[in-house]
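User: Can you recover a sequence for this backbone? Please restate the input before giving your answer.

Assistant: Of course. Working from this structure:
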């Protein structure tokens, strides 16, 4: 379970390489130390046809994992 959560970390730069994950699953490395509270991922809506490829930097709509399914 911990290895799966590690691989699905919302911040991609904190996810393990496949080699690191396999080492943990084969008991060749210790379990990672995950934070007690994971960051909430933010999802941006896809660009619509006709919208500029570069925007002001502000997303038009965001969803967090808390909002999904409500």
């Amino acid at each position: 379970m911990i290895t799966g959560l590690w691989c699905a970390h919302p911040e991609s730069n904190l996810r393990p390489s496949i080699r690191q994950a396999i080492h943990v699953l084969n008991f060749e490395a210790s379990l990672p130390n995950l934070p007690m509270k994971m960051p909430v991922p933010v999802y941006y809506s896809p660009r619509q046809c006709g919208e500029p490829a570069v925007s002001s930097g502000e997303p038009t709509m965001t969803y967090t994992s808390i909002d999904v399914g409500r």
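That completes the design. The longest helix spans residues 18-25.
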